[in-house]
Amino acid sequence: MVQFCLSQSTADLEGILSLQRENLSTLLSQEEKDEQGFVTVPHTLGQLEIMHSIAPHVLAKENGQVVAYVLAMTLESRELVPLLTSLFDNFERLDLAGKKVTSYQPMVVGQVCVGKSQRGTGLFDKLYTAYKEQYAFTYDFAITSIALSNYRSLAAHQRMGFKIIHTFQDSLNPWAIVYWDWNSNFPPQA
Predict the structure, then answer these.
(1) CA geometry: angle at 11 spanning 10 and 13, to 5°?
(2) Domain spans of the chain?
(3) What is the per-residue pLDDT across 120-150, written as a single tens digit (0 to 9) for each?
(4) DSSP 65
(5) Where are the alpha helices (DSSP H) in 29-182?
(6) Model's pTM, two decimal places?
(7) ∠44-177-184 over CA atoms, to 5°?
(8) CA torsion angle for 159, 107, 129, 68 (degrees, to 10)?
(9) Residues 6+ apart with CB under 8 A from 107
(10) CATH for the stretch 2-181
């Protein structure tokens, strides 16, 4: 039975890294990326530890093993993962309801991943529901970027209620910035 919890230990963070390695775009065939989705950014244990110290990650575990996760990042995490700098740079320029994203308290989804054995079980939705329950009272909304070529992830996020509010190109991919309004306080500007 799958249980939801917050990251608590080095073993939890190592479980995230293990699942991440199994789903990195650089290690998957094009067919698998197209059909199953992928994660783009590799993290280090040190990065995950610092992120965890700011805001714990939301995990789904089965028999003690991490089978899915959503990484928690805040504006304070900006400098931790250099590959995400362009996302945070966009937050400084991007208006949301007449204010820059950086003027709010957003919870930045650092990455979401569901293990292959759990796909198609509804775990993605339950994991994000747990994420919202954990952070909606402290943060204004969830925001992240998704590679436009990651069709499965983009569709799953839109099903959860994320809306595309901006697109941009970095040195790797074209990206969509997606936003999930947790509190219905304001509509996103396209």
Answers:
(1) 65
(2) 2-181
(3) 899 999 999 999 999 999 999 999 999 898 8
(4) E
(5) 30-36, 45-54, 85-93, 123-135, 151-160
(6) 0.90
(7) 110
(8) 90
(9) 55, 72, 73, 74, 131, 135, 138, 139, 141, 142, 143
(10) 3.40.630.30
